[in-house]
Amino acid sequence: MKKVIMALVLVLTLLCGSCFVCAASDPAVTVVNPQGNSTVYADNILISVKVTATRVLKITVFEEKLLNEDGSLSSLDSLEALGQVTAGSLRHVVVSPAETFYSNGNLSFYTKELKGITPGIYKLRVTTLDENGRTQYLQECYVVVRPPSEAKALSFQSEQSGVLSFLQSFLKNIFGN
Fold first, then answer.
1. pLDDT per position as a tens digit, 110-166
2. Cβ-contact 135, 67 below 8 angstroms
3. What's the count of helices (H) and strands (E) in the chain, helices before strands?
4. Domain ranges of the chain
5. Which of 52, 63, 172, 175 is the most buried (most CB within 10 A)?
6. Does domain 23-175 have CATH number 2.60.40.2550?
7. pTM
8. Per-residue b/e over 143-155, b at no fewer than 16 CB within 10 Å?
9. What is the pLDDT of residues 31-46, one digit of tens each?
């Protein structure tokens, strides 16, 4: 009888428990900008991906939206809010359709600027494809976009332009911390 109860508890735990699967990221691909889980005070996003080997990448940008009860979509304003959303009410709205990037050298960079971005949470997805076009590695990072006017209200942060922030993160990713 104890074995039956233990088996039942094990099955219920596996069925009802939440599972989190995390795929390994490609060591030859680094998202330089935007930094994961960062906040940007601008109406644009500069995307930069460093590739140090021959690879085929697919790069897509989504805005994470909340599906309201009336069927409309609304923007989320923080990563904490994103964590509290149920999976059924989250919508991934494509901001930049999947672009294929071919790197055939020892050091390559994919860069793109997305202009006219509205405040919200954006997800950058970088997929490394194998020779058959199947997903080999998957990297995702989130960035919170806030209006530029809110940056001036933060008196405890030093003012740093988007270019300076990009250069700083770019050099850190190339040379390490």
1. 999 999 888 889 999 999 998 888 999 999 999 998 888 776 655 445 555 667 777
2. no
3. 4, 9
4. 23-175
5. 63
6. yes
7. 0.69
8. bbbbeeeeeeeee
9. 998 888 888 888 888 9
Cα three-residue angle 123-54-129, rounded to 5 degrees: 45
Separation of alpha carbons 12 and 104, rounded Å: 49
Q: Which of 116, 128, 95 is nearest to 27 (CA)?
A: 128
Pairing between β-strand 44-51 and β-strand 108-115 as defined by DSSP bridges = antiparallel
Instruction: For residue 112, give the DSSP letter.
Output: E
DSSP string, 31-91: EEESPTTEEEESSEEEEEEEE-SSEEEEEEEEEEEEE-TTS-EEE---HHHHHTS-GGGEE
Distance CA 75, CA 151 (A): 19
> Distance (Å, rounded) from C-alpha 127 to C-alpha 110?
13
Total length of the chain: 177
For CA atoms 90, 96, 100, 102, the dihedral sign is negative
Q: Is the peptide bond before 148 cis (omega within 30 degrees of 0)?
A: no
